[in-house]
Design brief:
Layout: E1 7-11, E2 18-22, E3 32-36, H1 39-42, E4 49-53, H2 55-84
Antiparallel strand pairs: 1-2, 3-4
């Protein structure tokens, strides 16, 4: 087959899984780039950090992020209770 071009090497920033995928390959759709704001970057001009995740780690990220979102919403709503104390 000789030389083939048009491949990308993807490495999961969480588990280290690596894949070499050709452009347009259906498996490439199971890899995700996610942005993350730290508490410091959220209040400044710093851009978010970008992480590449495989499909399995992305599913775990979605669960983690949903929990973090709920905690943040709870924290925002608890401000009213803190002021009343």
């Amino acid at each position: 087959m000789g030389r083939q071009t048009g491949y990308s090497k993807l490495t999961c920033d969480r588990c280290g899984r690596t894949a070499f995928l050709q452009s347009g390959n259906a498996d490439a759709q199971s890899w995700y780039d996610v942005n993350h704001l730290t508490s410091t970057s959220a209040a400044s001009a710093q851009p978010p950090s970008t992480y590449t995740l495989c499909g399995d780690c992305y599913k775990a990220f979605q669960s983690f992020a949903a929990t973090a979102d709920a905690e943040f919403e709870k924290w925002v709503k608890d401000a009213d209770r803190e002021e009343q104390s």
